Amino acid sequence: MPPLDPETPVRALDGLVVRRVGGQVFVLLPDSSMHGFNNESAVAIWDQLVTAGSAGLSARALSQRLSAEFSVEPDQALETVLPFLERLIAEGLCAPAGA
What is this structure's pTM? Predict the structure, then answer.
């Protein structure tokens, strides 16, 4: 898969089972594999993607939101968000919006 463009909107896939335990989020895929998000920034990214719905959010937009929420520079947030989104896509939790 080619690198994700920071401007490409990404959406959480439909049909995933999501559970919250404390400050963690667990996502069950149709093949019964489970993914857990156990840090605040990962949970915040996931929540933003779910809230955005099918329109999705780009890595750049997510970075700006995380920058405001966690008091980090947008470029520093982008260095974290972009590979995280690529991993979510590779693991079948997300897809580019419109795909």
Answer: 0.91
